[in-house]
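Collaborator request, handled under Task 6.
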Amino acid sequence: MAQTDGPRLVVLSTLFPHAGAPGSGLFIRERMFRVGKQLPLVVVSPQPWFPLQGLIRKWRPHFRAAAPKHEVQQGIDVYYPRFFSVPGMFKSRDGFFMALGALPMLLRLRRRFGLDLIDAHFAFPDGYAATLLGKWLRMPVTITLRGTEPRLARDPRRRRLIASALKRARAVFAVSRSLRELAIELGTPEAKTRVMPNGVDTDKFTPVPKDQARKQLNLPTKVPVLISVGALVERKGFHRVLEILPALRGRFPHLHYLIVGGPSPEGDWSARLHEQAQALGVGDAVRFVGALPPDELKVPLSAADVFVLSTRNEGWANVFLEAMACGLPVVTTDVGGNREVVSRSELGMIVPFADPDSLQAALAEALTKSWDRPAIRTHAEHSGWDGRVAALVEQFRSLLAMPWERAGERPGTASNKAWAEKKSGAQRPISDR
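Structure tokens returned to the collaborator:
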């Protein structure tokens, strides 16, 4: 638990980085650890578990990467309790089992530190589990919608579970207006919804001189370069860019395409993408850079001319702001919150989803257009984390100042004494064994 004053939060999310999956949920950690500099928080990241899932990893190595029981990251405790989840089956029950799996840990944390609020990320299963825990522990809950909700809400049963969770939550934060509109459509009172976009670290993502960046990557100096960054899964649409690459090379014979990313819990299309590039005869033009830590992304971004992501679904794609912070225009699809990030023609182009002709035309125009790259960088600077985290912290403080409708005292006050004692001494991790 971070040693700061204010409401004590427990961040609840199945997606969070750990030693076995260092790239999982980085966008949640980036946001909430900044909050943790102002409010005390602890992270509980329940991990799906099934007795035979170790066997599945023999042919799917990245399936449910094994997590430790506890880590300390940037001075904040992160716990990874398990919950029962059958792969591909009974997914509507994941929220209930997730709540059961997390309950013992939250009880121990509340006894040790005192907890005031559960902050869940994604409406299902995380948000639904959080509202069950809030009911059992008599604690308020906030839910942040991050982009999976439109797809899950197409399933009638999960749609009902998401709607009930959003109605029970004290507040619903959405990273984009489109997600807030979905919450209202599902019956969430408009007054308790807020758009809370993500930000960008413009110190971490800053332009490197193009010649220097290309030299580091062994790229020719005077050739057009496209780049995409993301998990190598169907949703991100690398294959949709590859399929138009032969036509683009007809106009730009020396065109290069950088693909930065690797497998994720969502899947692994690495082999398929390699095979597609070879089958299309563009293998020599495509560079699979692999997954990179955030601190290293500025080099390939700075080496490119245009960022492209033909994605099928996004809530708020942080990577667009990261590309803009390096001076890159963005070409992407008109889905989710993409139009909210690429909000002006000076920042890039929006094309219809699953329209290869429009994507090809936009990329050809973007590669020949003279962009005001310093202005693109300035836009990203105006989307920095400081203001957005300040607004989020104020929301948490305001929520905990409201009367708690189910008890005569603020949740967690029974253990305020224990918390005060812990603040003055060294922390000891709580074992979930």
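The cover message to the collaborator said: "The CA atoms of residues 163 and 226 lie 40 Å apart. The chain is about 40% helix and 15% strand. Please let us know whether this matches your experimental observations."
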